[in-house]
Amino acid sequence: MILDGQGIATDVAPEMLANDVLQADDMCMEVAIDGSCTKPPVIEFQRAGWSLAILDPRSHGPLATMHAPVPASLLQSSAMGEHLGGAFVAQVADRACQIYADFMGVIRLGNKGMDQQLRSKTPYACVALFAQSLGGHHHIQKYNHVKAHRSGEEYAGLSEV
């Protein structure tokens, strides 16, 4: 599902999302990603999801968001959700892009070379392969670490730790 900055569903193709919400002179886009997962007592009922938010380069508030469940065929964990959020940035990125995440595993893997991502012996290598197949993957410059649950203003001037 794709929502605008006010949380209202919008009818725009994911590939056109950045172009739809960013100004033409915005040379770089910033995207925050996250994953989450329910933890019921029965593991078979565990379900995960992912989200991404394209941030306004001036106010650092959300311009648009996307979210969806992690497919049932994949590991149901918050880590898988965050990896998928990063992968879907490759679908919306149409210019140089910085990604902000709170899970160090996704940051480490995302900042590795493309070959190293695919050779990973983790369940996330399949997500890296999916991300590399999307048109905007080459726009992703860097994954940056942020502490969880930050407000938009706190993203201004952040860098990788």
Key words describing this protein structure:
161 residues; alpha/beta; Nucleotidyltransferase, domain 5; six-stranded mixed beta sheet; 5 helices; 6 strands; 25% strand; globular
Number of helices: 5
Q: According to CATH, what is the topology?
A: Nucleotidyltransferase, domain 5
Q: Find the count of extended strands (DSSP E, 2+ residues).
A: 6
Mean pLDDT: 87
Tally of discrete structural domains: 1
- Pattern of helices and strands: EHEEEHEHHHE
- What's the architecture, going by CATH? 2-Layer Sandwich
Radius of gyration: 15 Å
Q: Which structural class fits the helix and strand makeup?
A: alpha/beta
Helix content: 25-40%
What does this structure look like?
By secondary structure, the protein is an alpha/beta fold. It has a single domain, classed as Nucleotidyltransferase, domain 5 (2-Layer Sandwich). Helix content is 25%, strand content 25%. The chain has helices spanning 17-21, 78-92, 104-110, 114-119, 125-132; strands at residues 2-4, 28-37, 48-55, 62-69, 96-101, 140-145. A hairpin with a 6-residue loop joins strand 3 and strand 4. Helix 2 (78-92) packs parallel to helix 5. The longest helix is centred in the middle third of the chain and has 15 residues, at 78-92.
